[in-house]
Inverse folding.
């Protein structure tokens, strides 16, 4: 029978305990990287915090039930996450995460507003869509209350964007196949005052992912059922062109920060492109990429050097170099990654 010397056994025990404390200390001292990529893992109800330098997940935080879209506050301290549940869901919350502390905070209760989905942060306030109610709302973190609700009258009001002057809101309405342009206008008579006017522009079947060009002149919308992108002139409130794209189930679309290129991803099953890159000026395809499975959320970093694309069907996020238009790496994630955000 082999024995361990008592003194040696104590030393081993002491070293083991010390090792445990050192590991715990290192974890406690670990900080959220800056910049950081935030990835929603929809089927796991989690938020993954990723270090872009090594494409590794450094932390996971509960994201509430059925998390779909995410936006960060301008200072990068908080992440807001829509808890969707589908068009007829009874879910009425937006989850909140302290990014630095890596912990979930108390969610925002939207009361009678249900199925929050699209999110945008502008002017210190959080804009959101509520599909069940066919509205876009605005939440003020300072007063912890919803201070604006605007109806679209459209089915599945899904994604939202807000301009810098805060007088124009754009939404996509998937089941109606429309884009709503909601503008603040001055009333023609009576004392000087303003109101909101809603103009719905027919886009295409399944109009969902969209973006407004950096100069504010055009809205490009991806039509999932038409395999096409609709281009809308904002000033004229009319469609100027429809561009076919080689992506099935196109559901997300983003401009590069310089406005020169447009990326659109698709959830369509089967072989073929999951991401297409278009020249914004010529409206021509520059390149299509097969990411290995249906893709959804797109995030382009502020300097426009690369894009992150959630490959939902394969539980990974692709990194695309926007100079070479090649995939340079992948982030392995939890189940069904989708919404993406960037903090720094």
């Amino acid at each position: 029978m082999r024995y361990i010397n008592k003194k040696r056994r104590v030393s081993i025990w002491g070293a083991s305990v010390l090792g445990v404390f050192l590991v715990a200390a290192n974890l406690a001292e670990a900080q959220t990287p800056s910049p950081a990529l935030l990835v929603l893992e929809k089927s796991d109800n989690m938020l993954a915090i990723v270090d872009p330098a090594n494409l590794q997940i450094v932390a996971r935080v509960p994201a509430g039930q059925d998390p779909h879209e995410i936006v960060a506050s301008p200072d990068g301290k908080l992440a807001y996450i829509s808890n969707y549940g589908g068009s007829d869901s009874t879910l009425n919350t937006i989850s909140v995460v302290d990014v630095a502390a890596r912990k979930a905070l108390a969610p925002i209760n939207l009361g009678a507003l249900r199925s929050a989905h699209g999110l945008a942060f502008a002017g210190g306030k959080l804009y959101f869509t509520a599909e069940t109610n066919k509205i876009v709302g605005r939440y003020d973190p300072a007063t912890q209350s919803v201070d604006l609700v605007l109806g679209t009258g459209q089915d599945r009001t899904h994604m939202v964007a807000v301009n810098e002057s805060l007088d124009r809101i754009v939404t996509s309405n998937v089941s109606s196949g429309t884009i709503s342009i909601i503008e603040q206008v001055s009333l023609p008579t009576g004392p000087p005052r303003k109101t909101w006017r809603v103009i719905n522009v027919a886009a295409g079947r399944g109009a969902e992912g969209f973006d407004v060009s950096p100069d504010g002149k055009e809205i490009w919308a991806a039509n999932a059922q038409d395999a096409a992108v609709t281009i809308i002139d904002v000033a004229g409130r009319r469609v100027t062109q429809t561009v076919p794209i080689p992506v099935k189930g196109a559901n997300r679309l983003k401009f590069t920060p310089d406005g020169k290129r447009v990326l659109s991803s698709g959830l369509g099953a089967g072989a073929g492109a999951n991401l297409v890159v278009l020249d914004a000026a010529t409206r021509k395809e520059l390149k299509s990429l097969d990411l290995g499975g249906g893709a959804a959320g797109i995030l382009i970093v502020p300097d426009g050097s690369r894009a992150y694309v959630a490959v939902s069907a394969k539980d990974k996020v692709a990194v695309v170099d926007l100079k070479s238009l090649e995939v340079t790496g992948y982030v392995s994630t939890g189940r069904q990654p989708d919404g993406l955000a960037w903090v720094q």
Observations:
- The first helix runs from residue 6 to 29.
- The CA atoms of residues 16 and 340 lie 40 Å apart.
- The chain has one helix and 28 strands.
- The mean pLDDT is 92.
